[in-house]
Amino acid sequence: MNTSEAIRAVVPCRACLSGEDLDWLGGRSVSLALDLTTAVETTSAGTAPAPAPAAPAAGAGGGGGGGWSGQVWEFLRGRIAGLGPEPPAVAVHSEAPAASGLSSSTALIVGLFRAYTAYAAHTGQSTARPPGIPLATLAQWAYEFEFAHFNGGGMDHLAVIEGGALLLSGRSTGLPDILERRTFPEEWAVLVVDSATRKDTSDHIRVVRTQLADRDPALALYLKEADRASDEAWAAIGARDLDGLTAAMDRAHTTMRDQQGMSTPVLEELRAAALRAAGLRLKLSGAGGGGALVGVCRQEDLPDRTAVLRRALAEVRPAARVIPTRAAAGPI
């Protein structure tokens, strides 16, 4: 049996255009897969030990999936008969900034699931299932794995697996329902501004779950306003109305900041500089008090907008990065 052939899984990241937390609070959210990918590839270095740090890490060589590599393999051993005690060694490369609200952790986890299940089928280790795991099963397993660690929602898993733009309806546990799918207009580009400040959602999710249990009026207002912004964003994508989309994203950011305190002074400084210098409205993607902002512009304007933004942000936040990208089609 040939086990030297590399198995490679490539997974996009995602931006949340509206509706952070609504994938598990209830209500609608809009996700967009981005062509900033995480690649997980099995190597010929044999098997690797499975350390378990508290956070995911992207690297290369044996154990390149960080602490998640061993944990994902153990998860799969409980569901696929015939897997050996140790995972194959993997190399990981990610184009998405880490801890930025762009679901780089989920992309890594989904990539590990994808690579490991393909490896098991290729090497004949899986005796209980035919080669290939359905994407719906892959999404469910990845969600269950990550929910056990973070107690969050399932937007990210569906977004990176399905690709394109999704309108989701959230639920308290389990994957959200996909209400509609759309191809993002090819004449639009996406600009990601990495603030170089890390986000951390673990405490955020705990606080919001407490708000939910206490029926906090601020949370209720956020749910109402974010749901409305999602409706407007989805309608604008369908109508190819760029001004309508950017206005909806601005509304989504405003309610995130004002009702739930998800933004920070650094992020607001970057937003103000982008609007002033390039006329570009940026929205925070993901909760957790840091991370990346995203904006949408016409493809033909992308080179100039990128250059102007880089010059402007270098003056106020030299560590920030401007990353031009585009929507990623799917499914993976």
Report the principal-axis shape.
globular
Helix count from the secondary structure assignment: 10
Q: What proportion of the residues form beta strands (DSSP E)?
A: 15-25%
- Under CATH at level 1, the class of the largest domain stands as Alpha Beta
How many runs of DSSP E, i.e. beta strands? 9
Question: N-to-C terminal Cα separation, in Å?
Answer: 27 Å
> In sequence order, what are the helices and strands, one letter per element?
EHEHEHHHEEEHHHHEEHE
Please give the share of residues in helix.
40-55%
CATH topology of the largest domain: Ribosomal Protein S5, domain 2
Describe the main β-sheet briefly.
5 strands, antiparallel
The tally of structural domains comes to: 2
The structure class reads: alpha+beta
CATH architecture level-2 label of the largest domain: 2-Layer Sandwich
**Over the alpha carbons, how many angstroms does the gyration radius reach?**
20 Å
Mean pLDDT: 89
GO cellular component, one term: cytosol
GO molecular function: ATP binding; mevalonate kinase activity
Protein name: Galactokinase
Keywords: ATP-binding, Cytoplasm, Kinase, Lipid biosynthesis, Lipid metabolism, Magnesium, Nucleotide-binding, Transferase
